[in-house]
Amino acid sequence: MSIGLQYTGHYLSDVGLAVMEIFLGKEHQEFSQEDIERAADWLACQYQRKDMKGYLTIHFLNSGWCNATISEEKKLDYLEKVLRSYKARPLQDRECVYCRQPAQFLADRQHIPLLTGMTTIITSPGGVPGLPVCGYCLMVIQFYPLATLKCQGKPLFWWTPEPQLLRELTFEYYQELSRLIAGGSEKLANSSWPRTRLLEAAEKVLDRYGYDRPLADCIGVHLTNYGAGPDYHQYRIPKELLEFLVEIRFADQEVRESHEAIIKKAWEEDKKPAKKGSAIEEPKTGSQRNAYYEALVETFEDRNWQENISKIIHRFFVHTKPEEYADNNYELTAFFLEKVGGMEKQRLDIIKRIADQIALDLVIGNNEKKWINDLYFREYKPSRFTGYLIKAQKNLAEKGKVFTMEDVLTMLDIYSEYDTGAKDFWLVRDLFLIRLLEMVGKHKKEMLDEIKFEDVSETNNGGK
Ligand SMILES: [Zn+2]
Q: Whole-prediction pTM value?
């Protein structure tokens, strides 16, 4: 028996349905009438809790779920409407905006977040205010708060069109919220750094998700129904980033460990003082920021996201502290650039081949550390970097090693005479540096000890 519940592509009803599936332990196609009755009773019971009532004000403002001043009778009436309108007679000629089935209810802001108030008419169809919805969609939306984490005072949750992934991501915050509720405090703990919280959850999900299950573009939705105006923000997490984070788990040990080192190094302590009057100690994990995770998510908030990818390489993948030389890993960097940055493999291979020749034949073979020194300290302008390449080419040619003009053009991503912009010289230079530090660090580390690097992540414009 199939009940009128379905994924509709709308984030509020989709995450609500995912919560129901998690609670009932089955997919919605398997739900029976008793199942959804049981889920509705369970939800009503969950929302009785004092901490949840407080939390529900930012989801369903002034609603029967959380309004302390309305009568018991009105409250029961409200619950019946939001949880059991699927039994009501359809409205004439109105279809549900989510699933296109006949609508049974006109919802406003107390039933569904981000709508206007009950009596507010803003170009309502036929002059009748309210959003037409069917009883099932209205019901599943009531479950969505259990898919959210309170972050900066606002609900944060995941949405993706891929149901398996949505269920797993939703389960992560559902579990976290259950854990917080079980703590028994009067007020729900608030976390911070939404971008970090999102990728932290994604990592946990990907740990158990497996290699061959479907991935998709995701968004992290951060909204509140509280306050006078709409308050909505979304963070885009592209499929390619998730694929990178999955595949890196199956990479060679060195590659994997280099990436783990980047994440570990990027954790920062929260220096913000505790909020005044806040009696609850916030959980440490919920208030810590990871600079790498923040930068990754921020990357895709920008139209020029490809430039941001180069900045991430500069800031997180180049390691110039002596104790971190071993973390320079060209394979990892190239994999990231190919997967997340969409860079061509051929280009990355040529850069590696030429950097290898410089490392092996000139730095190690000729014992000339100037090839690292110059690259790091002097070749920061495109014109100088080209000069560096010409010098390298000349010196390598003396040893019978050649790279061609075509190699250089591919490496610098120059395809025609019109293509003269210094597009990403910085990136190519950083890639050279990563490979040179990796190779020389491995085979002749003492040469690096004589070079005094400044911390590139501090001095250059890697950060935002
Ligand atoms: Zn519907």
A: 0.90
